[in-house]
Amino acid sequence: MPDALNPAQLRTYFALMEAVSLLQYAVRQQLQADGGLSYVQFEILAKLADADHPLTMTDLADGVVYSRSGLTHQAGLLEKEGLITRAPSPDDQRATVVEITEKGRTRVAEVLPGHVEVVRALLFDSLDADEVRALGDMMENARDHMRSRPPRSAAPRKRRAGAGA
Amino acid sequence: MPDALNPAQLRTYFALMEAVSLLQYAVRQQLQADGGLSYVQFEILAKLADADHPLTMTDLADGVVYSRSGLTHQAGLLEKEGLITRAPSPDDQRATVVEITEKGRTRVAEVLPGHVEVVRALLFDSLDADEVRALGDMMENARDHMRSRPPRSAAPRKRRAGAGA
DNA sequence: TATTGTTATACTCTATAACTATA
DNA sequence: TATAGTTATAGAGTATAACAATA
């Protein structure tokens, strides 16, 4: 098991992290400016708009956020703005059923064109069709690989908490 | 100018964002667990460890963080832990010269193996050498493209601030 | 007992604006 | 006047732990 990255891997890692950071930053700016939405809020709304049936909080949590309380917080903000509704599920009284409102759909529609434009201008302007396909294949593989390999493996190595001194 | 993304682009965009989000999450976990460092702090230390001459705050700000005060804050934390030193520059009395300490280098050395291992296991396990090269080329192009194209273009479209209703 | 979800709380990161000091 | 950096402050996002209610 090789304990280091070769130069090509290092170069790729840094370029990937930096490029995506720049993209994320631009996307967050756009969503905030055009619709007052954080990226997570946009993800929640987009997921709800895409689904043909209402989703539970657990459904939404999958892949969107890493803690339940974080999702509850974000959902609370979206509900306060009238972009989603929350109601107890008829099937399972423990579950909460989340639906997007018309106002929520409108907000997504307001934000989407600018979003698409940013992604196109920043990411896809410099990639041809073949590259887009290759990149998509690689990232789907990587994503599936990471999903199936929970990071808990590398968790408890050394603890370090307060000011070191 | 096409106002939408084609299906291949959409698929690639989402896969890229999700894969990198998972990677970032795992990397942050590892850095925190192994060295009590945020990713930005690790970037600062790595940049200093890599440079053969001391850097100014402005040097560090390039590409690491998006506001000066944020960098000042992070540098303050690192200094408090004894991982870096800050001193007025002899050349330009306005500037601050930042140097990594031995303790800082040690911390980087402690964190690096686990970091590399996470990146290798999560990202490069599913990519062969050709893919690594292709991904690196694409991401370097995209990064340079984004750097040269400041996102301010899409900034002022619509304002939306407080609670909507 | 396990699961769903919320609440309370605390902490980190980031950004804005005001300010000092030097070029 | 422009630049380098800090400070104070405020806000958003996220996580942990305790809790309530249902399966």
From TrEMBL, chains A, B:
The record ties this protein, via InterPro entries, to: HTH_MarR-typ, MarR/SlyA-like, WH-like_DNA-bd_sf, WH_DNA-bd_sf
Q: What Pfam families does UniProt report for this protein, alphabetically?
A: MarR_2
Q: Please note every region of biased composition (Basic residues).
A: 148-165
Task: List residues of the HTH marR-type domain.
Answer: 9-144
One GO molecular function term of this record is:
DNA-binding transcription factor activity
Outline the segment boundaries, as ranges, of region: Disordered: 141-165
Which GO terms fall under biological process for this protein?
A: response to stress
* SUPFAM superfamilies assigned to the protein according to its UniProt record, in alphabetical order: Winged helix' DNA-binding domain
Which PANTHER family does this one have? MARR FAMILY REGULATORY PROTEIN, TRANSCRIPTIONAL REGULATOR, MARR FAMILY
Put simply, this protein is called: MarR family transcriptional regulator
Lineage of this protein's species? Bacteria, Bacillati, Actinomycetota, Actinomycetes, Mycobacteriales
